[in-house]
């Protein structure tokens, strides 16, 4: 190991120094129970305290008590808290981005980008705090007015995944806070330090304001049982859960059983089409980032690529050349574009899928483990291109790893049918310079996903639009547009300002005297 690599290798000491910046005491990192391992080198960097279901119940009751006060605070003042939180994030962007890279394994540029995404959603939410608009509707009755109003909902339970350990929470937290809700966050047990850091910064932002009740936000650390506690708790009217489809199947019935509200962001077996009119250089660059960024561990990562037969050979050659040059290594080092998989389980799942692909007639380029001699407890891989004769059951099943299945197509409608013939429906792309093809793909006859892009990859969503997908992706929407409505309850109001009492639909109901 070189001196440079040694300096960039995470250790418990370097992490403790970072956590102090966020106001997290050293004792919180050494209380045992849950060992936190960095995927960068496989080293244990902290041991944090696990919460029990009883602890979760106490946190939920405390957040509910805080809601009784927080809901009465005017929305623009709630927005001021979120604005101050954004200022804390700006001041600590470099440090928090580094922590994201250390704990999740994504490259430093992506860690910094994730924190910027938090800042962006806070700016959006602060503005939203003055725009929680209802509508006025025309009444059929003279002397009457109809309108809708929006009110705080209650405790928002947030379950997040390891691959976006801070941004997805911020999508929910920033919007929920300005809507008047309080928060209980169950992060992935693989990335608890990022959650503690965010809570520390939010606490710091709140300390400078009046009217902030205690226990406005809480972090509960533990396994799936805490997610189930949130899903089943009657004082949590909304649960936003991000993760695998398997996780969604576990929590959704518990939420539905008590008629709670769910925002589900689950699997994403995302596809892209490259047509004969496409700009091949642009498409290849977009495919590279979408398929190998975050080591293929984004919910929006590109997993299925449909190439028109007329450009297949040339495009695959171009893609293989790009794959051969992409730098793999320490995500904290400048120039690295692919960091490690999150853990051994992810590596084994990848190898199992590659073995099955080979049995299905696939031709594999890449996919092997690298840097094992340098970091035997970390799992770095070369991203894989798998040329498949057709879309098999394996291809239709998401593997959370940098595997790109490539297939030929002849007719556009044929490719769209194959694209839609999977159970997930998150993100999709078409690369074309033909206006008709682009519009067709975006129409009701085209992609059946919640995100449909033209001449950009399926990953890299901005916070201004609502994020989410259809089918087994869960149907939830987070972040921008009107996604805020999921965090509030709607009331339809009718005001009679006349001296008469006409009934709707012309009904006559009178007692004759």
Plain-language structure description:
This protein is an alpha/beta fold and 513 residues long. The chain has 15 helices and 23 strands. The chain has helices at 3-8, 12-21, 53-70, 75-91, 93-104, 108-128, 167-178, 192-206, 224-232, 245-257, 280-292, 312-325, 344-359, 412-420, 435-442, and strands at 34-37, 44-48, 136-137, 144-152, 155-159, 182-186, 217-219, 238-242, 261-265, 270-274, 302-308, 363-365, 369-370, 380-381, 384-387, 403-409, 424-425, 427-431, 451-454, 466-467, 470-471, 478-479, 488-496. Helix 3 crosses helix 9 and helix 6 runs parallel beside helix 7. The chain starts with a helix and ends in a 17-residue tail after the last strand. Residues 1-7 have low confidence and may be disordered.
Furnish the topology, listing elements before pairings:
Blueprint lengths: L2 H6 L3 H10 L12 E4 L6 E5 L4 H18 L4 H17 L1 H12 L3 H21 L7 E2 L6 E9 L2 E5 L7 H12 L3 E5 L5 H15 L10 E3 L4 H9 L5 E5 L2 H13 L3 E5 L4 E5 L5 H13 L9 E7 L3 H14 L18 H16 L3 E3 L3 E2 L9 E2 L2 E4 L15 E7 L2 H9 L3 E2 L1 E5 L3 H8 L8 E4 L11 E2 L2 E2 L6 E2 L8 E9 L17
Parallel strand pairs: 5-6, 5-8, 6-7, 8-9, 10-11, 10-18, 11-16, 15-16, 18-19
Antiparallel strand pairs: 1-2, 3-4, 4-23, 12-15, 13-14, 17-21, 20-22
Helix pairs in contact: 3-9, 4-6, 4-8, 5-6, 6-7, 9-10, 11-12
């Amino acid at each position: 190991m070189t001196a440079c690599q040694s300096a960039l290798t995470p250790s418990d000491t370097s992490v403790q120094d970072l956590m102090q910046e966020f106001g997290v005491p050293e004792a919180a990192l050494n209380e045992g129970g849950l060992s936190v391992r960095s995927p960068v080198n496989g080293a244990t960097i902290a041991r944090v305290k696990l919460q029990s279901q009883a602890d979760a119940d106490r946190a939920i009751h405390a957040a509910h008590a805080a809601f009784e006060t927080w809901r009465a605070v005017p929305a623009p003042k709630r927005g001021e808290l979120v604005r101050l939180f954004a200022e804390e994030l700006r001041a600590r962007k470099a440090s928090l981005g580094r922590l994201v890279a250390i704990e999740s394994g994504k490259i430093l540029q992506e860690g910094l980008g994730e924190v910027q995404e938090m800042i962006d959603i806070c700016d959006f939410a602060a503005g939203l705090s003055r725009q929680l608009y209802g509508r006025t509707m025309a009444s059929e009755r003279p002397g009457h007015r109809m309108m809708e109003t929006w009110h705080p909902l209650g405790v928002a339970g947030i379950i997040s995944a390891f691959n976006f350990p801070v941004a997805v929470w911020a999508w929910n937290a920033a919007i929920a806070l300005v809507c008047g809700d309080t928060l209980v966050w169950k992060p992935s047990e693989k990335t608890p330090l990022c959650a503690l850091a965010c809570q520390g910064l939010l606490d710091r932002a709140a300390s400078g304001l009046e009217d902030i009740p205690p226990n406005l936000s809480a972090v509960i650390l533990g396994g799936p049982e805490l997610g189930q506690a949130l899903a089943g708790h009657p004082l949590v009217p909304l649960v936003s859960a991000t993760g695998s489809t398997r996780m969604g199947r576990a929590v959704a019935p518990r939420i539905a059983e008590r008629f709670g509200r769910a925002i589900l962001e689950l699997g994403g077996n995302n596809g892209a089409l490259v047509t004969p009119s496409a700009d091949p250089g642009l498409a290849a660059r977009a495919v590279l980032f979408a398929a190998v960024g975050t080591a293929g561990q984004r919910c929006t990562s590109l997993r299925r690529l449909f190439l028109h037969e007329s450009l297949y050979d040339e495009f695959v050659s171009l893609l293989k050349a790009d794959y051969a040059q992409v730098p793999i290594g320490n995500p904290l080092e400048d120039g690295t574009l692919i960091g490690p998989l999150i853990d051994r389980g992810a590596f084994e799942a990848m190898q199992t899928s590659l073995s099955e692909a080979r049995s299905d007639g696939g031709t594999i380029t890449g996919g092997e483990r690298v840097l094992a001699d340098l970091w035997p407890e970390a799992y770095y891989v070369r991203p894989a291109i798998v040329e498949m004769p057709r879309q098999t059951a394996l291809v239709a099943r998401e593997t959370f790893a940098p595997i790109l299945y490539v297939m030929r197509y002849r007719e556009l409608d044929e490719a769209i049918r194959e694209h839609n013939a999977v159970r997930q429906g998150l993100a999709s792309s078409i690369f074309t310079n033909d206006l008709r093809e682009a519009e067709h793909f975006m129409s009701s006859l085209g992609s059946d996903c919640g995100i449909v892009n033209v001449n950009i990859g399926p990953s890299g969503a901005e916070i201004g639009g609502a994020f989410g997908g259809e089918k087994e992706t869960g149907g939830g929407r987070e972040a921008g547009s009107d996604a805020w409505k999921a965090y509030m309850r709607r009331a339809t109001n009718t005001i009679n300002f006349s001296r008469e009492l006409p009934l709707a639909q012309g009904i006559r109901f009178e007692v004759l005297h």
